[in-house]
Amino acid sequence: QLVILGTGDPVLEESAHAYRSRFIGCTLRVLWEASKELTSKGWLMEGLTDNYIRVTAVTPQARWNQLEAVRMVSLDGDGIKGVAVNHIGENDSQKTPPCCDEDRIQS
To answer: Tell me, what DSSP letter sits at residue 61?
Structure first.
């Protein structure tokens, strides 16, 4: 039987919540996929981490299809709200900040 997250299975939702929670306070690399809106503070961007966590953060410019280091700040529904730390340029695409765990980038 196929079970899809968000269908109300409390065990799956609790597990997903616990997984996302362990990244709060860490900095992860995010690939920006879309902008949600332009606010007075900048672009509200949405993207995915290397381990497929959905992240939203405000950036000064639209950054579609670009990598950026983002500090994970708080849980936000099925994802995490973050704060953009720095843009990772084309020449830096293989570089990541030092890891503090297997999936984390220490800020």
So the answer is: S
